[in-house]
Design a protein that fits this description.
289 residues, alpha/beta, eight-stranded mixed beta sheet, 8 strands, 42% helix
């Protein structure tokens, strides 16, 4: 209402302060989510991104990232949505790294026309990782027999309750190399000549924001508020874009997924949330966080 009223005023009476919409993308990048835990995915962020780029008269959209990575697919989908809207709305995208923008988090960060990090932020980790466990010896000890029936010889590839097969590992590594190359191409396309000629750049190594500046992974060091005020003036205001929080939103979820269900559904969602939390904890721990 305030913005509508301001637009109705004569130019001479309008405030000359610039307002920059801000999106916070914080957490692990995973598809799905539940009422117990919200992850970063296109489904959970699309509405916020659209809303930020629809903000009237803003010269730029600011994005705060704090993510250890996760799904390469969701990371690229979010990256693409940001870039598509930036071109469509002719808006500059400014990305600010907090604790970490690594792996998929860095993939989203390169959607920015400029990336600003704290000197102690963690950036990089341009690589692909898969992790699992082998339980075949454990189930023998506790007297459990594993029975798997498939139609198709590759349907039980990398089953954690069966001995690891060399050909399965080779197949997984081939897939990882293809995904890794997609990541490398995306970073090179966005960062171009800014990138240093360093042999470790695409090995999965990660660095502080200060070293990342030397390597061309980021464009500057600082924090969002100070940077935006220096760029657009002391009167610049930051407007955090948030999801709707009314009764209807709480009932349907952030973007329409049902939040209802009986005890079995709630128990299943809670169990899934515990697994997601363990996976997210593992992602953060790789960077000492």
């Amino acid at each position: 209402m305030r913005r509508l009223f301001s637009r109705l005023l004569p130019k001479s009476m309008r405030s000359n302060a610039i307002t920059i919409p801000v999106i916070r993308l914080h957490g692990a990048i995973m598809s799905g989510g539940s009422q117990f835990r919200q992850n970063i995915s296109l489904a959970t962020t699309a509405g916020l991104i659209e809303k930020a780029f629809a903000f009237p008269d803003a010269p730029a959209v600011a994005i705060s990232i704090n993510s250890p990575g996760g799904s390469p697919v969701q990371s690229r989908l979010i990256f693409k949505r940001i870039r598509d809207l930036a071109r469509e709305k002719n808006r500059r995208v400014l990305v600010f790294v907090e604790d970490v923008a690594a792996s998929g988090g860095y993939m989203i960060a390169v959607a920015g026309d400029e990336i600003i990090a704290d000197p102690s932020s963690i950036v990089g980790s341009i690589g692909v990782v898969s992790a699992s466990f082998g339980f075949q010896d454990l189930i023998k000890k506790i007297g459990v027999e594993r029975r798997v029936y498939t139609a198709g010889k590759n349907k039980a590839v990398l089953d954690p309750f069966q001995p690891e097969k060399k050909e399965d590992v080779e197949r997984l590594k081939k897939l990882q190399l293809e995904i890794h190359q997609t990541f490398i191409d995306l970073v090179k396309d966005r960062r171009g000549a800014k990138l240093a000629d360093d042999p470790d750049l695409f090995t999965g190594m990660f660095w502080t924001g200060g070293k990342g500046l030397e390597l061309g992974l980021v464009d500057g060091l600082g924090d969002m508020r100070a940077f935006l005020k220096d760029r657009y003036g002391e009167k610049t205001r930051l407007r955090l874009i948030t999801a709707p929080r009314g009764l209807f939103a709480r009932k349907l979820g952030i973007f329409g997924s049902s939040m209802g269900g009986g005890a079995p559904e709630l128990a299943a969602a809670a169990a899934e949330s515990v697994i997601d939390a363990a996976e997210e904890r593992a992602l953060w721990s790789r960077f000492g966080l």
